[in-house]
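Give me the fold.
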Amino acid sequence: MKASKLLLPLLLATLFISCDLTDNNNDITIVTPATYEFTRNGESTVSFTGQTARIKMATELFSAMSDFDNSTEELLLQMYRNQTADGGDADPFSDPALNAETKSVKSKVAASTDYFSANTTVSAQIKAQFEEWISGQINEVFPNENQLAEPGVAGQIADGSSTRYVNGKGFEFNQLVAKSLNGALIADQILNNYLSTSVLDAGTNREDNDNGVLDGDSNYTTMEHKWDEAYGYLYGTSQNPANPTPTVGDDDIFVNKYLGSVNADEDFAGIAQDIFDAFALGRAAIIEGDYELRDLQAQILREKISTVLGVRAVYYLQSGKNALDQQNPDYGAAFHDLSEGYGFIFSLQFTRIPNTDEPYLTKAEVDSILAQLTEGNGLWDVSPETLNQLSTTIADKFDFTVEEAAN
């Protein structure tokens, strides 16, 4: 990998993350827990039910976007908005527990404190973009279910034994929604909201945490809960949330899935354990009131989770390029990969460079890259050379090469 761009304190934290650490203020040795299990008075203090619910809602939405026989625009928008939609189905989800929820996916899209509390116009635009993709699936793609896709015409296109359904520019709307939620929902809430000092230390959170003041009738302090909510966006549907690393990649279709994919690449082997350890050690640091150590773990998580999104953006651009860069281009495979790549590129504006308030790629940089994929006839016109150039533009912002990400 390329020489690290991270600051020295972060490098030191990374080196020591699996070691026992001493709180210099209290002479307490803080050990990285082997599992994410924390108790008070014999009862668990860990809770992230809201995050689990939103992951399940987004999963059902993704599935319903391919249900040509039963899905309607009203149904899909209700799944995205939940109880905020006007009219539509009162119970859009197959899971009754989700229909009883007052939470929604939309309310947490582009909604982090650090990035969007003072940027509500852009937040509203991003929330609306997902609704445009959802409506496009119903109004552009569904009517052309049995039409062969061609430049400017939505329809179906073969991808090996699979059939993909694309708009006139070759994009799968369901993939744009799902892959963009990796950044706009999952990463934004983890990196720029719940791990933010403005959230963790809001109000009297530090004083309350130091004094063991609990959050209402709950068995956790507010600070403990905020950290757990960040954890829940990555591991909220894990088979064993206390020890999720053995099944990482298999537990949802969002960042968890792609953390598993990146971890399986020898160039990034160990990243899943690094991320879990940072979550677990940060939570242990909160219990001991070591906020410097807590914040070091937050910086590690920002770098590592951002890297997962960057790697997959380049991976899919390169996979699409390979499908196009042959004597007989495989448009179906290329369009599927590039639709996924589009969503991961869209997600990069929600990443976070450690020790800064900036993403690895700004919204303007992301918009510029996406414009090169959508101009003219979109994916029908994009060249392998352009995909290589875009891959390099993204990789240069991170601590990996195009070749490493493409494996």
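Confidence is low (pLDDT under 50) at residues 3-19.
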